[in-house]
């Protein structure tokens, strides 16, 4: 089966899930198997347990345990759920740095995101005629052309294992255990913690429901300099989505009416 958030075929059993990959040119099955294996050793229960893999099959497949719960995408997350989400992230980010250093870098990270946002800005995308949208675009371009994004590509803090995907569909609320599990590790790898937090707070999937980013971040212990990096990564990720939400933008068909206007408000709030 597939659902509206998945790009892969999933066969759901009572206790097991078989995942068949629709694409694997970036080594997605290898990334996911490596991450699940590492998590099973260092943070058991946080993600599905790896059972078996046919990584060289056509298509490649991974069999893993089935995690209970429902995705937080499309939900109005309660404070308890947000707290549990932060607890899951804190546990993930406490995997020892020497272990994480041996992991391949994630394909989606700071340098790639900065480059993508700037390329979209240079294209001067059609965002319509709304004066407030145009004002947000001008403010966003001014920030993107400053040197602030360049500082984000150098990380002095220890790396973390990250999903490299802030989609709220990857966060599964377990109503029985009252905790959050993390799914879909095909884009995972070694990454910048502040970038990962920017991804989960500003991914466009937040439009589908409500998840209080400030409450989430209040449960995560950040040094002042790292908190500043999270703030700027939030600006970067929010701008990247904003620039793709014009009438003919690639993100527009996948999001509800009014998304551009809501993202405009978000940009103006984040840029202060």
Automatic annotation (TrEMBL):
Swiss-Prot/TrEMBL keywords: Transferase
Keyword Transferase on entry: yes
Cited SUPFAM superfamilies: Protein kinase-like (PK-like)
InterPro entries, per the entry: Aminoglycoside_PTrfase, Kinase-like_dom_sf
Domain Aminoglycoside phosphotransferase: 15-211
Record GO terms (molecular function): transferase activity
Pfam families documented for this protein: APH
Protein name: Phosphotransferase enzyme family protein
Record organism: Nonomuraea maritima
């Amino acid at each position: 089966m597939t659902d509206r958030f998945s790009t892969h075929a999933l066969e759901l059993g009572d206790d097991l899930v078989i995942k068949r990959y629709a694409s694997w040119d970036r080594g997605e099955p290898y990334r996911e198997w490596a991450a699940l294996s590492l998590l099973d050793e260092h943070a058991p229960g946080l993600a599905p347990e790896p059972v078996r893999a046919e990584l060289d099959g056509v298509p490649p497949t991974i069999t893993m345990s089935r995690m209970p719960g429902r995705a937080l995408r499309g939900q109005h997350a309660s404070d308890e759920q947000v707290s549990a989400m932060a607890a899951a992230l804190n546990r993930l980010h406490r995997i020892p740095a020497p272990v994480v250093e041996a992991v391949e870098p994630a394909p989606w990270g700071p340098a790639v995101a900065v480059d993508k946002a700037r390329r979209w800005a240079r294209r001067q995308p059609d965002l319509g005629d709304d004066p407030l949208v145009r004002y947000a675009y001008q403010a966003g371009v001014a920030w993107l052309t400053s040197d602030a994004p360049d500082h984000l590509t150098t990380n002095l803090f220890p790396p973390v294992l990250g999903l490299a995907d802030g989609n709220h569909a990857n966060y599964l609320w377990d109503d029985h255990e009252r905790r959050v599990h993390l799914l879909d590790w095909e884009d995972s790898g070694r990454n910048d913690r502040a970038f990962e937090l920017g991804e989960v707070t500003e991914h466009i999937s937040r439009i589908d429901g409500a998840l209080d980013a400030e409450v989430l971040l209040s449960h995560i212990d950040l040094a002042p300099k790292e908190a500043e990096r999270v703030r700027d990564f939030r600006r970067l990720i929010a701008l990247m989505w904003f620039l793709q939400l014009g009438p003919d933008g690639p993100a527009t068909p996948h999001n509800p009416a009014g998304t551009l206007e809501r993202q405009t408000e978000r940009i103006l709030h984040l840029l202060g």
